[in-house]
Specification:
With 152 residues, the protein is mostly helical.
Length: 152
């Protein structure tokens, strides 16, 4: 009957081992993961499917078992990857194209490039080519946007 025994109570609730409780992990990081997924997938139904897929995946245990990763960072990476996978599948089904930049002002170019890169999964060289700017200018715009975000 040792299979169903409770842990001895010596483990800290903040520690997450390879045999962690998925429900506790979901309760702790689910809202954060869902927020990241919603930035990439605006459809709540698809976003919820990606969230369930994230916490049901075996990659979550592998990623969290690594001592070099914090659980929050690991879940952010996995949430983004899952959302991009779901977004690619749904985008290819409807024949999505690269978003237009006609509404982007010069001051928001860094935000637009960041959105294309992080939220929509485009590679930076492809973004630079599509926007007809140099790779260096695309990197500079994104760096300036990060500096803007870090301002107090």
């Amino acid at each position: 009957m040792g299979v169903l025994q409770q842990p001895d109570g010596n483990s800290n609730s903040q520690d997450i081992s390879p045999r962690f409780d998925r429900i506790r992990l979901y309760e702790q990081y689910g809202a954060m993961a869902y927020g990241i997924i919603l930035q990439i997938i605006p459809d709540p139904n698809l976003a919820q499917q990606a969230l369930v897929s994230l916490f049901a995946s075996p990659q979550i245990e592998q990623c969290l078992a690594s001592p070099s990763n914090s659980p929050a960072c690991a879940i952010i990476r996995l949430a983004r990857a899952k959302a991009l996978d779901v977004n690619r599948v749904s985008s290819s089904a409807i024949g999505a194209v690269f978003p237009e930049q006609s509404h982007v002002e010069d001051g928001n170019m860094g935000k637009y490039i960041f959105d294309l890169s992080f939220n929509q999964g485009y590679e930076l060289p492809a973004i630079a080519e599509r926007l007809k700017i140099s790779y260096v200018d695309a990197m500079k715009s994104m760096r300036d946007y990060f500096k803007y975000l870090r301002r107090p």
